[in-house]
Amino acid sequence: MGPVFGPTTPLTTAAPTERSDAARNRQLLLDAAQQLVRADGVDALTMDALAKHAGVGKGTVFRRFGNRAGLLHALLDHSDRKFQAAFMFGPPPLGPGAPPVERLVAFGRARLSGIDIEGAMRRSAESGEGGARYTGAPYNTLKAHIMMLLRETPVHGDIPLLADILLAPLDSGLVMAQLATGSYTIEQIGDAWERVVRELAPATGQ
After folding, report:
1. Which terminus of the chain is more exposed, N or C, with fewer CB under 10 A?
2. pTM to 2 decimal places
3. What ranges make up the beta strands (E) of 9-135?
């Protein structure tokens, strides 16, 4: 989840507990930050606001994240890890136990569900990465999951390319633009994702 900021812990039998406490406190701060963003939008997330919402001193927030940019990047990482845990270990249909096509449909809808809240934050981070975002761990974790599900179906063709094609409509920049212009709603985009997935599967015998 990234480094824990603070003084170096001495190598004693108490060290694992201290590290565990620091990680747990960091997670609580990120959960509080996520609540703020969902309630009031990204602009409302300041170091002062997070400290007040979490009931801690502002210095604690600065020690954990350095500045607001560090907080935003940590929050994106936190959000990504929660989503990954949901599709890897959570209940079906997003998690294991459902047919692959149903898991693909659930993946797209779940990915879209929070994008109107977190999309501005994610789009800002992605725009600064350029093409590097497609070689980084977050994107490739999602791609690997899509590839795994496609390989559980009779789909033929270039599986990595098909995974990229399926991920493209979920791009935060594209979705935010579609929402901003009023062209589509999240539900319509999710319905389109489902149609693409289900049309791909029947063409290969599903």
Report:
1. N
2. 0.76
3. none
